[in-house]
Specification:
The protein is α+β, with helices and mostly antiparallel strands and about 250 residues long. The longest helix has 17 residues. The protein is built from 6 helices and 11 strands. Among the domains are: about 35 residues, no CATH class; about 130 residues, 2-Layer Sandwich (TATA-Binding Protein). The strands form 3 sheets. It has a 6-stranded antiparallel beta sheet, sandwiched between helices. The protein has a 3-stranded antiparallel beta sheet with strand order 9-10-11. A two-stranded antiparallel ribbon has the order 2-3. Strand 6 and strand 7 form a beta hairpin.
Length: about 250
């Protein structure tokens, strides 16, 4: 039996004794990274941070990443919408689209393996509609929705997609789409109900009545006082609960 030959080379550690590994922030006088611009320019390493910022901006300028532009009117759609609702005392209702992404058509040939334990062997699904997880799903749902509501006379805001308006004489209705949530704001109940019927005839919808909670924001309204408030308390409580900080004190 041939004896195993072992190396006599002296093994050195991956890090030499010249290096000290520090765990945690602000350890041994080490300054933690700034979290905003003010901390960066006011801190002890302000020159280095400013140089890094300038270098990053120069790279983006060289790659023609952006151009400076005035913010078009209507880009902050949700806040403007609720301000209009409060000012003109509009009806504000909400609807939910069931199985949103299953409504969109796809243009490419997309094949998907069958779920394990289901279907025929040696066969795959050839998709005829978009499905959750598909890269095209969001885009195809938007195209489908835009085609449907445009056919009913809704006009999309040219500066903010997914914000629509339809007018009929002195009556008007705004329609705002947030993936599967739809906000409807109108000065005419008949037009509001007509729009709901149109949406329900085109998609599998759930009528949620007067809007109370959207995008993680609670809508608190007192129409007699012409007041509409927005609260994110529920969202904040969920974040605090997630990180076990519900009982924390400032």
């Amino acid at each position: 039996m041939v004896p195993v030959r072992r190396s006599t080379r002296v093994r050195r550690p991956a890090l030499s004794n010249d290096y000290i590994v520090l765990l945690g922030e602000d350890c041994g006088g080490l300054v933690s990274d700034p979290i905003n611009y003010e901390e960066a320019v006011d801190g002890p390493q302000n020159n280095e941070w400013l140089a890094a910022m300038k270098d990053e901006l120069q790279s983006m300028t060289a790659n023609d990443v952006w151009e400076l532009s005035e913010l078009p009117f209507g880009q902050v759609a949700f806040r403007i919408m609720v301000a209009l609702v409060a000012h003109f005392d509009l009806e504000l209702h909400q609807m939910d689209v069931k199985t949103t992404f299953l409504n969109g058509n796809i243009l490419e040939n997309v094949y998907m393996e069958q779920p394990e334990g289901f279907g025929s062997e040696h066969m795959v699904y050839k998709l005829k509609k978009s499905i959750y997880g598909l890269k095209q799903a969001s885009r195809q749902w938007y195209l489908m929705f835009d085609e449907v509501v445009s056919s009913f006379g809704f006009i999309e805001n040219p500066f903010n997609q997914c914000v629509y308006i339809r007018t009929s004489g002195s009556s008007f209705i705004f329609l705002v789409l947030y993936v599967d949530d739809i906000l409807l704001a109108s000065n005419d109940l008949a037009l509001l109900h007509e729009t709901k019927e149109m949406l329900s005839s085109s998609f599998d919808m759930k009528d949620l009545g007067e809007a109370a909670y959207v995008l993680g924001i609670e809508i608190c309204r007192n129409r007699s006082r012409n007041v509409l408030g927005l609260s994110q308390r529920s969202y904040i409580d969920k974040v605090l609960e997630r990180f076990a900080m519900l009982s924390c004190k400032l």
